[in-house]
Amino acid sequence: MNKRLRMRMSGVLFGGLLVILGVTAASAATWIGTGTGDWNVPSNWDPASVPTTGDTVVIANDNASVLLTNAVGYFDSLLLSNKVTLVFSNWVTSLSAGNITIATNAAMQCSGPYTNNAMSNRVYLVCTNLAIHPGGRIDVNELGYAGGGPNTVEGQYAAGNGPGHWTRSSVYGGMSKAALLPVGSATNAEFAGSGATAGYHVSSRGGHGGGAVRIEAIDRVDISGSITANGGAPVGTQTHASSGTGGGIYIACRVISGTNGRVEAKGGTGATGVGVGQVGTGGRIAVHYSPAAQSDEPLPQIAFNCSRGVTSPGNDRIAEAGTVYFTDDRFVVDAINNKRLAGQIVLGGGDSLSTDNLTVDNVWVGFQRNDFRLTVSNNLLVKGPEGRFEIGGATYAWRGGYPWGSWSAKRFSGSSCPILSVGGNLVLTNGASLCVYSGMNAATSTSYGALIAVGDTLAVHTGSYVNIDACPTNSSRPFFQLGSLLVATNARISA
């Protein structure tokens, strides 16, 4: 017998008379399973039937693990709590409910990692509202495409899996120094991360890619916990073994909110020592919302991170950060200044941004649009060895040649001219960098391919640098318009 029965009525009011159109019963379906974790086994539920449309579903058994293998819903609500883990298997498996709550210590995951020849998996939610409480999480770290290996023959490389795998590395939201161009779409973030190559020693395995998450909410997504789809590091004897890329996280809602939340699709950390392989590129995060509705909300306190993996000091086999897409620019300045945004930023329809001051603190921040214009009325500070600021560079061109050990593709700004205007000082310090991507020769409306205008001083301190990149066959020089220039010892400007 049902422990709880709740009546729901719908109707229309005509002249003070409520005309009842329908009455539906919402049953409480509570997980009681202690053996098999199969969602579709009736005896795992109280009452002893699989939840159906309109039910209120509660999974709260301490440390329970529940496997979902097919699309279910539309439920009235779903609650996960008490260290419960709900595991999604199959790419088309979805869970639909009015309100979905992932309480403290509860989690959603997907099965994985998986190879090119196996069934792919993701976490796919369709709802009115999603709430992830502090300590609650959607965690698909290293649950995307599998890394290559483990090797069984000394001296041979085993390639990873996924659309961005390659003989010696993998890519997703950004380019890798010894691999391919980025794959997928910044606005859709539809793929899981690709697995990386194993090293050439027996037992070596490449890092797995981060998994995929898709959330379609009619109203609110509140993230005070975390959604993570990070790539993994290689294992075993790691010579030339590479790391997996970040995965893909897609969120569509009316408004997004949260306090101390995290959304991450970071590349896998690299091995250390001599002869290490590539770190993982960042994945892709896409956040779509209603600008009109979002304008009535406080700024969400959520960190969005598509950083590349980190590597040992002095290892130049780097990869790029992935992409973070927002419908507009309302979060961007606050998130950057408070170290809550890392990645190559793509804005829906926005080609410019203005702010008083901007600080990029030891993270990779770029505006990946060829004609983007950033105006900082006072000062722009970029600091730290991972501190990197980029403008332009949405166009990629294959340069040719043997890719291992040198960049085999170039980024530039197509036929456009990106502009960075700083009214005060532009300061690079503690190993930070500024990367400028110039447009093609004679293709822009100006006589130059990019403009960097600094009212006071461009200061490049020790260990920091400015890098200029352009089309490999038809480049136009950038124009630096400076009040003054300071290039310290062991700093550089290179093109």
List its salient traits.
single chain, 495 residues, mainly beta, 26-stranded mixed sheet, 2 helices, 36 strands, 2% helix, disordered N terminus
Quick summary of this structure?
Helix content is 2%, strand content 39%. It has helices at residues 291-294, 332-337, and strands spanning 5-14, 17-31, 45-46, 56-59, 65-68, 72-80, 85-88, 95-102, 107-110, 123-132, 137-139, 212-217, 220-223, 226-228, 248-252, 255-257, 259-264, 284-288, 301-305, 323-326, 341-347, 352-355, 358-361, 364-367, 373-376, 380-383, 388-391, 395-398, 409-412, 419-422, 426-429, 433-437, 451-460, 465-469, 479-487, 492-494.
Verbal overview:
- The chain has 495 residues and is mainly beta.
- The protein has two helices and 36 strands.
- It has a 26-stranded mixed β-sheet that branches.
- The radius of gyration is 25 Å and the shape is globular.
Q: Point out poorly predicted stretches.
A: 1-23, 401-407
Q: Taking all residues together, what is the mean pLDDT? A: 87
Total of helices: 2
Q: Look at the helices and sheets and give the structural class.
A: mainly beta
Major sheet: 26 strands, mixed
